[in-house]
Amino acid sequence: MTTERDHGGDLAAATRAFGGAPADWIDLSTGINRVPWPVPPVSPHAWTALPGREARDRLIAAARCAYGTDWPILPLGGAQAAIQLLPALAPDGAVRIVTPTYNEYAGVLALSGRVVEGVPEAAALAGAGMAILVNPNNPDGRRVSASDLRGIASCVGLLVVDESFADPHPELSLLTGACPENVIVLRSFGKFYGLAGLRLGFALGARAHLDRIAAMAGPWSVSGPALEIGAAALCDADWRAVSTARLGNDAVRADKLARDAGWNCLGGTALFRLYETPDSTAARAQLGRARIWSRVFPWSPRALRLGLPGSSWEWARLGEALAREA
């Protein structure tokens, strides 16, 4: 039995289907910022020494400032590292996930032997032992207010809120309020900062939950370079503000190109957009012939997700490809 699940990325699949080399492609199949934070030279110490407590504490302080929170914070090797450990935290009772969404949640919990129920909206999470939703959601961008999430937390055993795409939407975050005892919030570093290969993320929540996650993750769960780069990037408030404004404008720009091509916007975030096309497989092929990789989904024959281009020539190529689609 395979445990591999469908995700964005994988330019090898793009080249097999449509030719070219990976360098020829614009990968818009993920929600990763294509204008990454500019990484300075990393200190030799970060490469050669075991990651230390001081570097970890600097990263936590930077994350606390960037996210505007006083919640306990645990750095990990990406939000995915926390997802892998959720089965050990799940209380008795139903596991419910607002779907469609990132498929690793259902996959990981099902492999642990839990019965997972997909539900169509956040209100249907009530009564679950473990309740999971992504906010804003991937791939349709659905949003649930912080006040509504606190209401849901009051009627479930454990609420897991994935805020991996919330950096440009800080008004949605639970982290600016008090920390409930039965809530875990996950944050991804690599998406907004455009450095997914660094493998850095955070779990935030009550100390008892974080201590269990930390014990299972083991020592040195975040590399020295990730600690150093992450702390510097999270302290860069100017870059964060400029990037948030640019991404918001770029989302509007992408929607206009798609609308001119006859596509309908189904939703999205400031890092990706979801469109309704006449035929998502055909639309993906049209973009693929222009060496632009996009994301389609097994649950819809029409939905196609696009990340946002990061340079003028990427925008030009997308515009030309969509004009041919029209």
TrEMBL record:
<dbReference type="InterPro" id="IPR015421">
    <property type="entry name" value="PyrdxlP-dep_Trfase_major"/>
</dbReference>
<keyword id="KW-0808">Transferase</keyword>
<protein>
    <recommendedName>
        <fullName>Aminotransferase</fullName>
        <ecNumber>2.6.1.-</ecNumber>
    </recommendedName>
</protein>
<dbReference type="GO" id="GO:0030170">
    <property type="term" value="F:pyridoxal phosphate binding"/>
</dbReference>
<comment type="similarity">
    <text>Belongs to the class-I pyridoxal-phosphate-dependent aminotransferase family.</text>
</comment>
<dbReference type="InterPro" id="IPR004839">
    <property type="entry name" value="Aminotransferase_I/II_large"/>
</dbReference>
<keyword id="KW-0032">Aminotransferase</keyword>
<keyword id="KW-0663">Pyridoxal phosphate</keyword>
<feature type="domain" description="Aminotransferase class I/classII large">
    <location>
        <begin position="73"/>
        <end position="281"/>
    </location>
</feature>
<dbReference type="Pfam" id="PF00155">
    <property type="entry name" value="Aminotran_1_2"/>
</dbReference>
<dbReference type="InterPro" id="IPR015424">
    <property type="entry name" value="PyrdxlP-dep_Trfase"/>
</dbReference>
<dbReference type="InterPro" id="IPR015422">
    <property type="entry name" value="PyrdxlP-dep_Trfase_small"/>
</dbReference>
<dbReference type="GO" id="GO:0008483">
    <property type="term" value="F:transaminase activity"/>
</dbReference>
<dbReference type="InterPro" id="IPR004838">
    <property type="entry name" value="NHTrfase_class1_PyrdxlP-BS"/>
</dbReference>
